Amino acid sequence: MYSHEERLKAVKLHVDSGMGLKGIMRTLGYPHDIKVLRQWCREFKFSREIHEVDGFDDGYSLKQKTLAVKYFVNCGDLRRTIREIGYPSSTQRLKIWVEKYNLNENDHWQADQNPVKWGQDRQTGSSPLIQENPFEEIEIASNAIYKDLGFLEELFQRRLATMSKKDSEVTIESLKEEMQVLLRNMENLRKENKALLKANQSLGEKTKSLDEKCQTLAKEYKELGEQTLIKRIEYEALEIAAETIKKEEGISLKTLTNREKAIVIDALLSRSKYPLKKLLTVLNMAKASYFYQKSAMKAGDKYAEIRETIKDKFKKNRSVYGYRRIWLALRKDGKILSEKLVRRFMKEDHLVPYRKKAKKYSSYKGEISPAPNLVNRNFHADELGKLLLTDITEFHISAGKVYLSAITDVFDGKIVAWTIGTSPNAKLVNTMLVKAREALGDDKHPIVHSDRGIHYQWPGWIALMKKFGWTRSMSKKGCSPDNAACEGVFGRVKNEMFYNRSWIGVSIKEFIAYLDDYLHWYNEDRIKITLGGMSPVEYRESLGIM
């Protein structure tokens, strides 16, 4: 048995300091049963006091036992009584109290009666002490306190009316105190509820804002993942295009043909787990086109032989022919196909001649002995040796500078004569003029058209022109279109022979030999579309001139 002070100390530790029941038992060393400590706490929570032990055989006062029996008589349930008021510790003890104590001095029950059934029977009786459940009324009052505070007072007045005068005198003050406490508690609860509602509303707004941010971030994360996947596919596709299809650096996926795209997609499917639908979307290719290309590749290329022939023609002709001249070369060999096919095959196989605009070499030194412009950009002649065009161009290699002076017949575009040297002097152009006279013969008296370079105004040039009986014609100052046909010949020579090649380690003597060999090929083998797919020499032979 524990004293009142010991039990009160244990309960205060739990109520005031919030210490747990097991912690209290470890700290104080008592009680030995946690159920006993829990019963003390329930009793204090219900009545705000701990009963005195002295004078009671089982630790409960007569007032506590009477209260427990009253509550049982009102509710008719042993377990509910213990659960609500917090004691006694077992239903068996409560049964003993119900059998021992009577609420009405003139109303006893028989020993063989069931106390639970007796309690339920008394609920339906007319005893003035059997009243409605006071806790239910307090609960109703607490729910109605916000609507009408007078309701609580009316409820208490109704309860007081059913009591005896003696009991009323004792109970009125306690009920008023209980009502005041209840009102204060209800007001505090109202304030706390209002604060909780406000906090809940603020929390709800923050939660909503956070949800929206989470959704936005999830959407951005998904989009970023999609963009990353697309970039990874594009990067791997470009790698495959460079390795498998031999595409040069800087190539775009947009310029790939459907056949090349199908090859890239097959390679990606074999080396990664990308879905086909995603690959088709990134490479901008229809699904039907992909499967068509796959079936076409399985069937084989029926133009494989002609493709190889085109490659051979392109390489043998110094990689300078465009698709039109390749088409004419194929026709000469008896292979008939459309220009569009030739152009497509050359594009797919990357057989593209190099083209670059040359920086014009200028030999203009001022006006010394000008001549009129007799051509006026009419670069046509109906007979051989009627109109000749001449000019000088420069080749700059690592070993030094090389100059080419050439004279071209407008009739068929043949380079009639040329000289190559390391200095653009009078000897270079005069020697070329003498060679041209030997090639044309004494019976030809052409017009020789040039720009206003100093070479064509020197006395030596003028003297040779008079000696041969040839006529001088010169372009306007700084007007390159006036001699465009001759400059076009030099442009073709440089594009086909000079540009897009490395001349490091090549001596001047070797370069001159290479250039001279090319000029012979230009006249004898290089076909011209305007001559019906023949070279200038072949064209003259076909006319019986040579």
From TrEMBL:
What's an example Gene Ontology biological process for this entry?
Answer: DNA integration
Q: Which residues form a coiled coil?
A: 165-227
Question: Which Pfam families does the annotation name?
Answer: HTH_21 (PF13276), rve (PF00665), rve_2 (PF13333)
Entry keyword set: Coiled coil
- InterPro entries from the xrefs? HTH-like_dom, Integrase_cat-core, RNaseH-like_sf, RNaseH_sf, Transpos_IS3, Transposase_IS3/IS150/IS904
* Top-level taxonomic group: Bacteria
One annotated GO molecular function: nucleic acid binding
Q: Where are the transmembrane segments?
A: none
Residue ranges occupied by any Integrase catalytic domain in the UniProt entry: 368-544
Q: Which SUPFAM superfamilies match?
A: Ribonuclease H-like (SSF53098)
PANTHER family per the record? TRANSPOSASE INSF FOR INSERTION SEQUENCE IS3B-RELATED, TRANSPOSASE INSO FOR INSERTION SEQUENCE ELEMENT IS911B-RELATED
Known function: Involved in the transposition of the insertion sequence.
Protein name as it appears in the record: Transposase
